[in-house]
Each structure stands twice: as structure tokens, then as C-alpha cells.
Specification:
The protein has 161 residues and is mainly alpha-helical. The chain is built from five helices and two strands; from the N terminus they run ααββααα. It has helices spanning 2-34, 38-47, 73-99, 104-130, 134-160, and strands at residues 49-53, 62-66. It has a two-stranded antiparallel ribbon.
Amino acid sequence: MSKSKETPRQYQEGLFTAISIGFFLLLVGTLFVINPNLFSSIIDFFKDFKLVQVFPNTSNIMFPAPEYPQLHQTVYQAARQFSIAIGVFQVVILALRFVIPSSWGKRSETVGNFVYWIGANFLIQSFLIGNTQWFVFWSTIIILAGVSIIVRAVIMAAARI
């Protein structure tokens, strides 16, 4: 009897997975179409990676980063477009999770994903496109990941009340 209850939920989550994978592939293809030089820009971006000093006042703290991060605006712009699209997609998935009832765990995961991707959009604009602060960007992305996890936890806690 418990198996028959699990099958619809597995099917439903499989449906969300299929929609998500399809959207991801559609998005990646679209990004390459609307940014015609994106492939060569990505190759140039990775070729530019060197060990660079984290901050000018620190000694012997070196991490891999583009030697000239300000030269890769095409890659940053594509990353920003990606994060906006995924953020909007998370809203659609959240709406579907209410129409096709999902667990509160999955709903909170979707909200956390939304917070992360919309936050990433803001950080890409602020620290990569705006004034290109490579290591500040990555520090704030780590903070954003923590905020996203906290948002998930708060929604899960509220759902239990």
C-alpha cells in the first residue's frame, strides 16, 4: 500500500526534473545564440587563469583567477543572463509545486534556489560587470549560498508550525 502512495510522488518529481533539464538545455543553447562569441570568450576566459595575489596587501596568498578579469565582460554578461533566467524559472517551478502539490521540503528548496540565483545576478552585476572585483565576488557568493540555506531552513521550520 505504501508503494502506491510513493509512485505518484516519484512521477511528479521526475516531471519536475525533466522540465528542469529541458529548460537548462534550452537556456544554454539560447545563450550561445544570443551571444555569438560566447564559446571563444569562454576559452579566452579560462586561458587567462593564473595564480594571482588575493588582495594587494596580502603576501603569499595566491589563488587561481583570471589575470585580467575586466577583459571578460561577455562571459560575465552571459552568466548574468543565465542567473536571471534560472531565477525566473524557479518562480515558475514554485508555482507548479503549489498547483501539483509538492512537499514543503521541495518548495523550500525552490525558494532557496530562487534566492541564490537572483542574488547571484545582483552579485555578478555588482562585482564582475560593474567594477570587476573577482575575489570579492566569490566571497559574497559563499555568503549568498549560506543565506539561501537559511531561507530554506526558515521555510521548513514555518511549515512545521
